[in-house]
Design goal:
It is built from two helices and two strands. The chain is mainly α and 71 residues long. Strands 1-2 form a two-stranded parallel sheet. Strand 1, helix 2 and strand 2 form a beta-alpha-beta unit.
């Protein structure tokens, strides 16, 4: 997905000239989203990226509802 490519470019820019890792969570805005739901999904994706290890990128689009905190 294009959102993960964007995350990779952001991570590369953040780390330019530095030695480290960046974890990024991504969520695409949906018609039914408000600020709270969009941030909640991107936050869940961030924690999934961190759970998978340092320097990872996760998209809410690829996550199952259970991983995002929904039954």
């Amino acid at each position: 997905f294009c959102d993960l490519k964007i995350a990779e470019r952001i991570a590369a820019k953040v780390l330019e000239g530095m030695n480290g890792k960046v974890s990024i969570g991504i969520a695409q805005c949906r018609a039914e989203d408000n600020t709270q739901t969009l941030v909640a999904r991107s936050d869940a994706a961030l924690y999934e990226a961190k759970r998978c290890g340092r320097g990872r990128h996760a998209s809410a689009h690829e996550m199952t509802p259970n991983v995002m905190g929904h039954p």
